[in-house]
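re the bet — no i am not wrong, look at it urself. input seq straight from the record:
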Amino acid sequence: MTDSPILTVDISAWRAGGAARELCAAVDESLQKAGFLLVTGHGIDPSLPAGLRATARRFFALPDEVKEKYSVGVGGRGWIGPGKEANGYSEGTETPPDLKETYNCGAQTPVGIPEVDDYWFAPDVWPDEVPELRTLFNRWTSQMKALSDDLLSLMAASLGMTGEDNPFRGLASNPTWTSNINHYPPLHDVGEPEPGQFRIGPHTDFGTVTILDREPGAGGLQVYSEEGGWADAPYDPNALTVNIGDLLEYWSGGRWPAGRHRVLPPQPDAPAEDLVSLIFFYELDHDAVVHPLGGGAPVVSGDFIRERLDAITVA
Protein backbone atom coordinates (compact mmCIF):
# COMPACT_ATOMS: atom_id res chain seq x y z
CA MET A 1 0.00 0.00 0.00
CA THR A 2 2.88 2.37 -0.66
CA ASP A 3 0.68 4.21 -3.15
CA SER A 4 -2.11 4.82 -0.66
CA PRO A 5 -3.36 8.42 -0.41
CA ILE A 6 -3.35 7.93 3.37
CA LEU A 7 -0.10 9.28 4.77
CA THR A 8 1.69 8.32 7.98
CA VAL A 9 2.66 11.26 10.20
CA ASP A 10 4.82 11.31 13.32
CA ILE A 11 3.36 13.79 15.82
CA SER A 12 5.95 13.34 18.58
CA ALA A 13 7.79 16.59 17.76
CA TRP A 14 4.49 18.47 17.49
CA ARG A 15 3.39 17.25 20.93
CA ALA A 16 6.73 18.39 22.34
CA GLY A 17 6.26 21.87 20.90
CA GLY A 18 8.56 21.48 17.91
CA ALA A 19 8.34 22.89 14.41
CA ALA A 20 5.53 21.48 12.32
CA ARG A 21 5.58 22.95 8.80
CA GLU A 22 6.21 19.65 6.99
CA LEU A 23 3.89 17.79 9.36
CA CYS A 24 1.04 20.26 8.73
CA ALA A 25 1.54 20.00 4.97
CA ALA A 26 1.30 16.18 5.17
CA VAL A 27 -1.81 16.36 7.37
CA ASP A 28 -3.49 18.73 4.92
CA GLU A 29 -2.58 16.56 1.93
CA SER A 30 -3.78 13.29 3.45
CA LEU A 31 -7.04 14.77 4.73
CA GLN A 32 -7.79 16.37 1.39
CA LYS A 33 -7.30 13.08 -0.45
CA ALA A 34 -8.98 10.60 1.90
CA GLY A 35 -10.02 12.16 5.21
CA PHE A 36 -7.65 9.69 6.93
CA LEU A 37 -4.19 9.65 8.55
CA LEU A 38 -1.96 7.09 10.22
CA VAL A 39 -0.47 8.67 13.33
CA THR A 40 2.72 7.56 15.07
CA GLY A 41 4.48 9.25 17.97
CA HIS A 42 1.17 9.42 19.82
CA GLY A 43 2.60 8.34 23.16
CA ILE A 44 0.08 5.59 23.93
CA ASP A 45 1.62 2.60 25.72
CA PRO A 46 0.67 -0.41 23.54
CA SER A 47 0.01 -2.50 26.63
CA LEU A 48 -3.11 -0.42 27.38
CA PRO A 49 -5.08 -1.17 24.19
CA ALA A 50 -3.81 -4.76 24.27
CA GLY A 51 -5.14 -5.21 27.79
CA LEU A 52 -8.44 -3.51 26.97
CA ARG A 53 -8.93 -5.66 23.87
CA ALA A 54 -8.24 -8.87 25.79
CA THR A 55 -10.64 -7.86 28.56
CA ALA A 56 -13.35 -6.93 26.06
CA ARG A 57 -13.03 -10.36 24.44
CA ARG A 58 -13.90 -11.89 27.82
CA PHE A 59 -17.11 -9.87 27.88
CA PHE A 60 -18.05 -10.67 24.28
CA ALA A 61 -17.52 -14.38 24.98
CA LEU A 62 -20.30 -14.33 27.61
CA PRO A 63 -23.67 -15.87 26.70
CA ASP A 64 -26.12 -13.48 25.06
CA GLU A 65 -28.53 -13.83 27.97
CA VAL A 66 -25.84 -12.41 30.26
CA LYS A 67 -24.93 -9.59 27.89
CA GLU A 68 -28.62 -8.70 27.56
CA LYS A 69 -28.49 -7.31 31.10
CA TYR A 70 -26.44 -4.45 29.68
CA SER A 71 -28.31 -4.06 26.39
CA VAL A 72 -28.95 -0.54 25.03
CA GLY A 73 -29.90 1.04 21.72
CA VAL A 74 -27.67 3.01 19.37
CA GLY A 75 -26.31 6.03 21.24
CA GLY A 76 -26.78 4.34 24.63
CA ARG A 77 -24.22 3.21 27.15
CA GLY A 78 -23.59 -0.51 27.41
CA TRP A 79 -23.93 -3.47 25.02
CA ILE A 80 -25.33 -2.83 21.53
CA GLY A 81 -26.09 -6.30 20.26
CA PRO A 82 -26.19 -7.62 16.71
CA GLY A 83 -28.91 -6.36 14.39
CA LYS A 84 -29.37 -2.90 15.91
CA GLU A 85 -27.23 -0.79 13.63
CA ALA A 86 -26.81 -0.31 9.89
CA ASN A 87 -24.28 2.40 9.13
CA GLY A 88 -25.07 2.42 5.42
CA TYR A 89 -28.39 4.11 6.26
CA SER A 90 -26.45 7.31 7.03
CA GLU A 91 -25.70 7.53 3.29
CA GLY A 92 -29.28 6.74 2.36
CA THR A 93 -28.48 3.13 1.46
CA GLU A 94 -30.75 0.46 2.93
CA THR A 95 -28.45 -2.36 3.94
CA PRO A 96 -28.87 -5.40 6.17
CA PRO A 97 -27.76 -4.81 9.78
CA ASP A 98 -24.03 -4.62 10.41
CA LEU A 99 -22.32 -7.86 11.48
CA LYS A 100 -20.97 -6.69 14.80
CA GLU A 101 -21.63 -6.16 18.47
CA THR A 102 -20.40 -3.20 20.53
CA TYR A 103 -19.63 -2.21 24.07
CA ASN A 104 -19.95 1.51 24.53
CA CYS A 105 -19.14 4.25 27.03
CA GLY A 106 -19.23 8.05 26.84
CA ALA A 107 -18.53 11.42 28.40
CA GLN A 108 -19.48 11.70 32.06
CA THR A 109 -19.58 15.48 32.53
CA PRO A 110 -23.27 16.43 32.79
CA VAL A 111 -24.32 20.06 32.46
CA GLY A 112 -27.39 19.98 34.72
CA ILE A 113 -30.01 20.08 31.95
CA PRO A 114 -31.96 16.79 32.07
CA GLU A 115 -32.79 16.53 28.36
CA VAL A 116 -29.13 17.18 27.51
CA ASP A 117 -27.63 14.97 30.19
CA ASP A 118 -29.95 12.04 29.49
CA TYR A 119 -28.71 11.84 25.91
CA TRP A 120 -25.13 13.12 25.81
CA PHE A 121 -23.94 12.31 29.34
CA ALA A 122 -25.95 9.23 30.25
CA PRO A 123 -24.33 7.12 32.99
CA ASP A 124 -22.00 4.40 31.80
CA VAL A 125 -23.02 0.80 32.47
CA TRP A 126 -20.37 -1.71 33.50
CA PRO A 127 -20.59 -5.53 33.54
CA ASP A 128 -20.26 -7.22 36.91
CA GLU A 129 -18.85 -10.28 35.17
CA VAL A 130 -15.77 -8.42 33.85
CA PRO A 131 -15.03 -5.65 36.39
CA GLU A 132 -11.63 -4.84 34.86
CA LEU A 133 -13.36 -3.49 31.76
CA ARG A 134 -14.34 -0.28 33.55
CA THR A 135 -10.83 0.57 34.70
CA LEU A 136 -9.12 -0.14 31.41
CA PHE A 137 -11.78 1.51 29.27
CA ASN A 138 -11.69 4.68 31.37
CA ARG A 139 -7.88 4.83 31.17
CA TRP A 140 -7.99 4.44 27.41
CA THR A 141 -10.69 7.05 26.81
CA SER A 142 -8.88 9.57 29.02
CA GLN A 143 -5.79 9.26 26.86
CA MET A 144 -7.82 9.35 23.64
CA LYS A 145 -9.54 12.58 24.70
CA ALA A 146 -6.19 14.27 25.34
CA LEU A 147 -4.86 13.02 22.00
CA SER A 148 -8.01 14.22 20.21
CA ASP A 149 -7.52 17.73 21.59
CA ASP A 150 -3.94 17.67 20.28
CA LEU A 151 -5.12 16.46 16.89
CA LEU A 152 -7.72 19.22 16.60
CA SER A 153 -5.03 21.79 17.35
CA LEU A 154 -2.76 20.18 14.76
CA MET A 155 -5.52 20.24 12.17
CA ALA A 156 -6.23 23.91 12.82
CA ALA A 157 -2.52 24.62 12.43
CA SER A 158 -2.56 22.66 9.17
CA LEU A 159 -4.95 25.31 7.87
CA GLY A 160 -2.72 28.09 9.15
CA MET A 161 -4.81 28.87 12.22
CA THR A 162 -3.06 28.82 15.58
CA GLY A 163 -3.46 30.52 18.95
CA GLU A 164 -6.34 32.98 18.96
CA ASP A 165 -7.09 32.06 15.34
CA ASN A 166 -7.84 28.43 16.21
CA PRO A 167 -11.60 28.20 15.52
CA PHE A 168 -12.04 25.42 18.09
CA ARG A 169 -10.82 27.50 21.01
CA GLY A 170 -13.61 27.41 23.58
CA LEU A 171 -15.74 24.91 21.65
CA ALA A 172 -14.49 21.77 23.41
CA SER A 173 -14.36 22.79 27.06
CA ASN A 174 -16.94 20.09 27.95
CA PRO A 175 -17.14 17.99 24.79
CA THR A 176 -19.39 15.08 24.03
CA TRP A 177 -17.66 11.90 22.97
CA THR A 178 -18.37 8.21 22.65
CA SER A 179 -16.05 5.24 22.64
CA ASN A 180 -16.89 1.85 21.13
CA ILE A 181 -15.29 -1.53 21.40
CA ASN A 182 -16.49 -3.28 18.25
CA HIS A 183 -16.43 -7.06 17.99
CA TYR A 184 -16.57 -8.55 14.50
CA PRO A 185 -17.37 -12.26 14.99
CA PRO A 186 -16.09 -14.97 12.66
CA LEU A 187 -17.99 -16.34 9.69
CA HIS A 188 -18.91 -19.57 11.46
CA ASP A 189 -20.70 -17.53 14.16
CA VAL A 190 -22.65 -15.08 12.00
CA GLY A 191 -23.28 -17.26 8.96
CA GLU A 192 -23.10 -16.31 5.30
CA PRO A 193 -23.50 -12.52 4.92
CA GLU A 194 -26.58 -11.30 3.09
CA PRO A 195 -26.07 -9.40 -0.18
CA GLY A 196 -24.78 -5.93 0.64
CA GLN A 197 -24.06 -6.80 4.26
CA PHE A 198 -20.87 -5.66 5.99
CA ARG A 199 -19.29 -5.77 9.40
CA ILE A 200 -19.85 -2.01 9.13
CA GLY A 201 -21.57 -0.60 6.07
CA PRO A 202 -20.15 2.32 4.05
CA HIS A 203 -20.41 5.58 5.95
CA THR A 204 -18.65 8.62 7.30
CA ASP A 205 -18.34 9.35 11.01
CA PHE A 206 -20.33 12.23 12.41
CA GLY A 207 -18.13 14.32 14.70
CA THR A 208 -14.70 15.92 14.51
CA VAL A 209 -11.93 13.36 15.04
CA THR A 210 -12.15 9.58 15.23
CA ILE A 211 -9.22 7.53 16.59
CA LEU A 212 -9.08 3.84 15.80
CA ASP A 213 -6.86 1.13 17.26
CA ARG A 214 -7.55 -1.81 14.97
CA GLU A 215 -6.55 -5.35 14.14
CA PRO A 216 -5.78 -6.08 10.48
CA GLY A 217 -7.76 -8.77 8.73
CA ALA A 218 -9.14 -10.10 5.48
CA GLY A 219 -12.51 -8.69 6.52
CA GLY A 220 -11.01 -5.42 7.69
CA LEU A 221 -11.12 -1.68 7.12
CA GLN A 222 -11.43 -0.20 3.66
CA VAL A 223 -11.25 3.51 2.83
CA TYR A 224 -12.68 5.32 -0.17
CA SER A 225 -10.78 8.00 -2.07
CA GLU A 226 -11.60 9.77 -5.32
CA GLU A 227 -8.32 8.69 -6.89
CA GLY A 228 -8.42 5.04 -5.90
CA GLY A 229 -11.97 4.07 -5.04
CA TRP A 230 -12.30 1.45 -2.29
CA ALA A 231 -8.99 0.04 -1.03
CA ASP A 232 -7.71 -1.70 2.08
CA ALA A 233 -6.53 0.86 4.60
CA PRO A 234 -2.76 0.76 5.19
CA TYR A 235 -1.77 -0.76 8.51
CA ASP A 236 1.12 -0.05 10.86
CA PRO A 237 1.14 -1.78 14.26
CA ASN A 238 2.79 1.30 15.77
CA ALA A 239 0.22 3.73 14.38
CA LEU A 240 -3.28 4.77 15.27
CA THR A 241 -5.71 5.26 12.40
CA VAL A 242 -7.31 8.72 12.47
CA ASN A 243 -10.15 10.03 10.35
CA ILE A 244 -12.29 13.14 10.35
CA GLY A 245 -16.06 13.21 10.55
CA ASP A 246 -18.89 15.19 9.01
CA LEU A 247 -18.68 18.04 11.52
CA LEU A 248 -15.01 18.68 10.79
CA GLU A 249 -15.67 18.46 7.05
CA TYR A 250 -18.35 21.11 7.46
CA TRP A 251 -16.05 23.30 9.55
CA SER A 252 -13.29 23.04 6.92
CA GLY A 253 -15.69 24.34 4.28
CA GLY A 254 -15.41 21.04 2.45
CA ARG A 255 -11.63 21.22 2.02
CA TRP A 256 -11.30 17.99 3.98
CA PRO A 257 -13.92 15.36 3.11
CA ALA A 258 -15.04 13.18 5.98
CA GLY A 259 -13.27 9.83 5.67
CA ARG A 260 -15.65 7.42 3.97
CA HIS A 261 -15.01 3.86 5.05
CA ARG A 262 -16.44 0.41 5.62
CA VAL A 263 -15.46 -2.85 7.28
CA LEU A 264 -15.74 -5.86 5.00
CA PRO A 265 -17.83 -8.87 6.02
CA PRO A 266 -16.05 -12.01 7.22
CA GLN A 267 -14.35 -13.61 4.24
CA PRO A 268 -14.73 -17.22 3.06
CA ASP A 269 -10.94 -17.67 3.02
CA ALA A 270 -10.69 -16.55 6.66
CA PRO A 271 -13.81 -18.06 8.31
CA ALA A 272 -12.31 -18.05 11.82
CA GLU A 273 -11.19 -14.41 11.71
CA ASP A 274 -12.38 -12.67 14.90
CA LEU A 275 -11.50 -8.98 15.22
CA VAL A 276 -11.87 -6.36 17.96
CA SER A 277 -11.47 -2.64 17.26
CA LEU A 278 -11.18 0.20 19.79
CA ILE A 279 -12.74 3.44 18.56
CA PHE A 280 -12.96 6.93 20.04
CA PHE A 281 -15.45 9.37 18.48
CA TYR A 282 -14.74 12.97 19.45
CA GLU A 283 -17.10 15.87 19.04
CA LEU A 284 -17.42 19.33 20.62
CA ASP A 285 -19.53 20.86 23.38
CA HIS A 286 -23.14 19.80 22.80
CA ASP A 287 -24.15 23.43 22.19
CA ALA A 288 -21.03 24.53 20.29
CA VAL A 289 -21.85 26.57 17.20
CA VAL A 290 -19.65 25.73 14.22
CA HIS A 291 -19.17 28.36 11.54
CA PRO A 292 -17.77 26.81 8.34
CA LEU A 293 -14.64 28.35 6.90
CA GLY A 294 -15.37 30.38 3.81
CA GLY A 295 -18.96 31.08 4.86
CA GLY A 296 -22.15 29.10 5.19
CA ALA A 297 -24.87 28.49 7.74
CA PRO A 298 -23.68 27.73 11.28
CA VAL A 299 -24.66 24.42 12.89
CA VAL A 300 -25.00 23.30 16.51
CA SER A 301 -22.78 20.31 17.24
CA GLY A 302 -25.27 18.23 19.24
CA ASP A 303 -28.14 18.70 16.78
CA PHE A 304 -25.86 17.95 13.83
CA ILE A 305 -24.62 14.65 15.28
CA ARG A 306 -27.87 13.42 16.78
CA GLU A 307 -29.62 13.63 13.42
CA ARG A 308 -27.03 11.26 12.00
CA LEU A 309 -27.15 8.82 14.92
CA ASP A 310 -30.91 8.52 14.53
CA ALA A 311 -30.46 7.66 10.84
CA ILE A 312 -28.40 4.51 11.49
CA THR A 313 -30.65 2.99 14.16
CA VAL A 314 -32.38 -0.20 13.06
CA ALA A 315 -33.99 -1.29 16.32
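see?? The chain has nine helices and 14 strands. told u. also The mean pLDDT is 93. so pay up
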